[in-house]
Design brief:
With 175 residues, the protein is mainly α. The protein has a domain at 13-120. Helix content is 69%, strand content 0%. The longest helix is centred in the middle third of the chain and has 34 residues, at 98-131.
Length: 175
Amino acid sequence: MDAVNPPVFIIPLWAALTAVALGGVQGALFASGFQGQRRLDLLGVAIIGILLGMGGGLIRDLLLGLTPATLQNNWYLLTATVASLVGMLLSGIFQRLNRAIVLLDAVVIGLFGAFGTADIMFAPVVTRFVTYSLPVARFAPAYMNAVLQHPFMQDWIAAAQEEDWVIQQFEMDQA
């Protein structure tokens, strides 16, 4: 198995960039809140905004053994940078909108969870479609194959095939 697995479940770019932008704005609001000698310049605010904007997805991909999406597309860095700079320049306005920003951030996090949860819940359904050779739409086989080829599914299937016990009443007659 490769050290880095290819992505199977793709989060739409608009959703990922929305999360990055909200993280960048929140990072800028945090960084621009420093006062006195601890006050950060534009570069410091941008760095914190970029770290917060891109950090969550980077950590998620590394923990899943995937190639980080944030390193494959320049839009992530550009979005995080612009969002953090805009967040700093308009920090007064964004401070008043902080509840809305936090709410949007929660929605985006839920959206990311919903994509992953739907894929995980559909994995056993894929095995039923394959086992019983059920007809599927033209676009479904590619998705089904991606699910079945995922390393986690491969491990699960291999473990199931190693089981040596049988519940006879649930076995089909081999005619």
